[in-house]
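Thread amino acids onto this structure.
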C-alpha cells in the first residue's frame, strides 16, 4: 500500500514537473515564406541544384525537426511559399504587420526564407519591427531532399535563438551555419556553399552551439524599437530601382526608363568607392538637381565605405546596393529632402 502511494506521488510529481516545463518553454511562431529550406527535387539526394524552392509547407518543416518542440511551444503560419528571388513589397508589408501583431503574444519569431534575398528582408524588418523580442530569419543552401541538408539544423538553431533571453534587443538576426548575423550587415557571399552568410563590414554577432547562442558583439546602428520607420498604415512602398555601372557604360537608358516607370529613388552600384561612368553620372546629377528623384551612391565591390562626393548624389555609407535600396524606400515614406535622407543613411 505504502509502495503504491509512493509511486502515485512520484508519478504526480513527474507530471507536474513536465507540465511546468512545457509552460516555461518560450512561445515561438514560425512564419514560412518558402526558399530552399522548403525546396525539393526528384533528382535524388546528391542533387543540390536544379530543385524547386518553396514546395514544402510549414507543417512539413516543423514535423521534420521534432526536436524544436522540446525547446519551444511552436506555432506555424504560411505567409507565402516562393523562391525568394520573387520577393515583393506586398509580402514584406504583410510579414512586418503580422510579426508586429504576433509579438504582442509570443516570445520570439522565426521566419523561414530563401537565402537569395534574405539579407534584404532582414534589413527591412530590422527597420520596421516595433519590439525588442528576437526575430530570426533562417534558410538553407541545400534542399530538404539532399543528403546532409542544412535546413533542419539551421531551423533548430533559429528556434533556439528566437527563444533565448540573451537574443532580446539584438535586432533582427540571420541564423545560418551555426552563425548569428545582424540584419544590417549580414550578406550572402557565395552562390552555393552552406557558409555563404558573412558580415563583411563588421563580423558576426555570435555563434550557436548545440542550441545555445553565444554573443560576442551587438548591432551598432539603431533598429526595431529605436527606428523611426513605421509601415503599419502603408499598403505600398515608394518605387526605388538599382542601376549598375561598368566599363563603357555611357548610357542613361536604364536610368531614364526607371524614372519613366515611376521610380522615386535610384541606387547606383558604383565601381570602387562609388564611382559612376561620367555619361551616366551627368544624367544622374541633373536628375538629383531637378529633384526628379533621390539618387544614392553605393558600390558593387561588396564591402566598404562609400565617401560623400558632395555633388548632390547621396552616399550609402557601407550598405550594399540592395540594402541601400531598402533604406531609401523607407526614407522616402517620410521625406524626399536629400539632406534628411543623407542623415538617415549616416544613422541606420
Ligand atoms: C531562394 O532564395 O528562395 C532560393 C535559394 C535559397 O533559398 O537558397
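Threaded sequence (348 positions):
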Amino acid at each position: 500500500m505504502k509502495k503504491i502511494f509512493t509511486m502515485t506521488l512520484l508519478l504526480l510529481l513527474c507530471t507536474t514537473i513536465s507540465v511546468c516545463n512545457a509552460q516555461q518553454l518560450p512561445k515561438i511562431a514560425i512564419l514560412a515564406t518558402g526558399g530552399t529550406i522548403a525546396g525539393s527535387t526528384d533528382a535524388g539526394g546528391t542533387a543540390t541544384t536544379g530543385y524547386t524552392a518553396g514546395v514544402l509547407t510549414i507543417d512539413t518543416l516543423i514535423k521534420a525537426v521534432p526536436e524544436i518542440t522540446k525547446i519551444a511551444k511552436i506555432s506555424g503560419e504560411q505567409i507565402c511559399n516562393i523562391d525568394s528571388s520573387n520577393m515583393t513589397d506586398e509580402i514584406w508589408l504583410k510579414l512586418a504587420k503580422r510579426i508586429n501583431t504576433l509579438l504582442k503574444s509570443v516570445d520570439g519569431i522565426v521566419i523561414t526564407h530563401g537565402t537569395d534575398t534574405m539579407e534584404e528582408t532582414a534589413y527591412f524588418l530590422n527597420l520596421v519591427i516595433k519590439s525588442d523580442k528576437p526575430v530570426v530569419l533562417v534558410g538553407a543552401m541545400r534542399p530538404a531532399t539532399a543528403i546532409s541538408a542544412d535546413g533542419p539544423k539551421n531551423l533548430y538553431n533559429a528556434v533556439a535563438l528566437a527563444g533565448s533571453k540573451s537574443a532580446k534587443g539584438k535586432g533582427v538576426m540571420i541564423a545560418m551555419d551555426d552563425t548569428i548575423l545582424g540584419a544590417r550587415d549580414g550578406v550572402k557571399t557565395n552562390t552555393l556553399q552552406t557558409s555563404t552568410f558573412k558580415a563583411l563590414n563588421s563580423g558576426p554577432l555570435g555563434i550557436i552551439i548545440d542550441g545555445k547562442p553565444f554573443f560576442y558583439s551587438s548591432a551598432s546602428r539603431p533598429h526595431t524599437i529605436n527606428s523611426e520607420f513605421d509601415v503599419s498604415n502603408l499598403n505600398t512602398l515608394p518605387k526605388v530601382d538599382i542601376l549598375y555601372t561598368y566599363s563603357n557604360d555611357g548610357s542613361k537608358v536604364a536610368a531614364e526608363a526607371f524614372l519613366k516607370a515611376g521610380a522615386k529613388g535610384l541606387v547606383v552600384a558604383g565601381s570602387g568607392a562609388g564611382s559612376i561612368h561620367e555619361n551616366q553620372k551627368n544624367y544622374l546629377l541633373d536628375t538629383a538637381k531637378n529633384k526628379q528623384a533621390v539618387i544614392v551612391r553605393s558600390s558593387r565591390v561588396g564591402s566598404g565605405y562609400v565617401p560623400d562626393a558632395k555633388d548632390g548624389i547621396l552616399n550609402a555609407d557601407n550598405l550594399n546596393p540592395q540594402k541601400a535600396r531598402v533604406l531609401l524606400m523607407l526614407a522616402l515614406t517620410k521625406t524626399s529632402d536629400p539632406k534628411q535622407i543623407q542623415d538617415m543613411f549616416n544613422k541606420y
